[in-house]
């Protein structure tokens, strides 16, 4: 069993008290050159006490999904018809992930890579990419929103895992991301080894959190509801680094030219569209849309619009089916 991770400096404890956030279990002694901001922490920021990590759940290949309906052979389906009768596809996402799903300050519209993927599902199901209703979810709300029926699908940088498959279903993979680290220019952090004893901001309820805990158990982890909160904390010197998918880090980096992506990949994150368990017809329909956009060039156009700074389009990840 791991011991409790050393936590934040005394100034960080004071900031946590001001913000009403949970305080770390033990004082963290900063290196003489380190200074920490006294600004209040964002609402919902929480220091994570280390606990023994569970054994990984095994399920074979978690990315294997249901094969799409044959072209032109979509059967009568109560679940699909309910969405058609409603006249809109209800999509769970967040508005704090720049380039993936964010509110454009110029026109007030919700835009981004994940948004455009969801719009393609609406195009095929309802005849228009505009027939969508977006509901903003925190990361730890994604699965419950599907189980409660508050949303039809979740398109929110959601990695397909065996553990999540115990509660919800997934489409085929529509994007391969890689976890890395974001720091401010001049930071001594270069890779995951350098995170020992340093404060790292991670999204609450994300696979990024578990990967940081497994690869660097001596990091001081702070979780937040929205990735935009991590950027604020990094800018205010309340954390030393942010660790998550390169797609999300790129979106944060475009908002602050003094930030830098560093280090090699810590592991891949294979995004799938989340769907409630038992709704096989919707899973197959969504997979049909993903199959179409792989073939007709739509995926490459969406990538080029939002993620081109990561490099040339790598091509959509191939589908894996289990039936």
Can you describe this structure?
The chain is an alpha/beta fold. 29% of the residues lie in helices and 20% in strands. It has two domains: 10-55 and 177-262, Periplasmic binding protein-like II (D-Maltodextrin-Binding Protein, domain 2, 3-Layer(aba) Sandwich); 78-173 and 272-310, D-Maltodextrin-Binding Protein, domain 2, CATH 3.40.190.10. It has helices at residues 10-19, 78-86, 113-126, 142-147, 162-165, 207-215, 227-235, 246-253, 280-295, 298-306, and strands at residues 46-47, 89-93, 96-97, 101-103, 110-111, 132-136, 153-154, 168-184, 199-203, 220-224, 241-245, 259-262, 268-276. The strands form two sheets. Strands 1, 2, 6, 7, 8, 9, 10, 11, 12 and 13 form a ten-stranded mixed sheet that branches. Strands 3-4-5 form a three-stranded antiparallel sheet. Helix 3 (113-126) packs across helix 9 (280-295). The longest helix is centred in the last third of the chain and has 16 residues, at 280-295. This is Glutamate ABC transporter substrate-binding protein.
Q: What's the layout of helices and strands?
A:
Blueprint: H1 10-19, E1 46-47, H2 78-86, E2 89-93, E3 96-97, E4 101-103, E5 110-111, H3 113-126, E6 132-136, H4 142-147, E7 153-154, H5 162-165, E8 168-184, E9 199-203, H6 207-215, E10 220-224, H7 227-235, E11 241-245, H8 246-253, E12 259-262, E13 268-276, H9 280-295, H10 298-306
Parallel strand pairs: 2-6, 2-7, 9-10, 9-11
Antiparallel strand pairs: 1-10, 3-4, 4-5, 7-13, 8-11, 8-12, 8-13
Helix pairs in contact: 3-9
